[in-house]
Amino acid sequence: MKVKIHVTLKKSVLDPQGEAVKKGLLTLGFAEIDQVRIGKYFEIDLKVMKGQNLREDISKMCEKLLANPVIEDYEIDIPQEGS
Amino acid sequence: MKVKIHVTLKKSVLDPQGEAVKKGLLTLGFAEIDQVRIGKYFEIDLKVMKGQNLREDISKMCEKLLANPVIEDYEIDIPQEGS
């Protein structure tokens, strides 16, 4: 199964990378840009065991490695759950 | 309007970051991981001008700055288009 995860900075956290990209786009003539926020996108292929709580396991992966819970939020997209 | 863009490495391109994260997850005991692919995720807030071809403009942004067309693919998600 392929699980998709979005890790983004919390709204309250400044995004210097996003600001830099915004300036770059404005410089290239894309004048309509208001704001750019940049995050990480993970596609994880994994085997699902019988009775496994997949969402709980994926949350643990995010909390332990994929995201920094202090400054980042994460969103888990499990296909057949339609979340 | 908020447009969402996913920039990912082409399937044929090796993903050393993804491999490193995979090893990390396996070390943490998440044995069911087969593969991890990592990409960039952009949320762009912008004003839409009357008659503007938004998808074309966003593609230009990707081609010029957000993605490296040689090794990366990009996917544009424009809300009301339901793409």
TrEMBL record, chains A, B:
GO terms for molecular function: phosphoribosylformylglycinamidine synthase activity. It catalyses: N(2)-formyl-N(1)-(5-phospho-beta-D-ribosyl)glycinamide + L-glutamine + ATP + H2O = 2-formamido-N(1)-(5-O-phospho-beta-D-ribosyl)acetamidine + L-glutamate + ADP + phosphate + H(+). Pathway: Purine metabolism; IMP biosynthesis via de novo pathway; 5-amino-1-(5-phospho-D-ribosyl)imidazole from N(2)-formyl-N(1)-(5-phospho-D-ribosyl)glycinamide: step 1/2. InterPro entries: PurS, PurS-like_sf. SUPFAM superfamilies: PurS-like. It is found in: Cytoplasm. The keyword S-adenosyl-L-methionine does not apply. Keywords: ATP-binding, Cytoplasm, Ligase, Nucleotide-binding, Purine biosynthesis. It is an enzyme of class 6 (ligase). Its EC number is 6.3.5.3. Part of the phosphoribosylformylglycinamidine synthase complex involved in the purines biosynthetic pathway. Catalyzes the ATP-dependent conversion of formylglycinamide ribonucleotide (FGAR) and glutamine to yield formylglycinamidine ribonucleotide (FGAM) and glutamate. The FGAM synthase complex is composed of three subunits. PurQ produces an ammonia molecule by converting glutamine to glutamate. PurL transfers the ammonia molecule to FGAR to form FGAM in an ATP-dependent manner. Part of the FGAM synthase complex composed of 1 PurL, 1 PurQ and 2 PurS subunits. Belongs to the PurS family. This is Phosphoribosylformylglycinamidine synthase subunit PurS. The lineage of its organism: Bacteria, Bacteria division CSSED10-310.
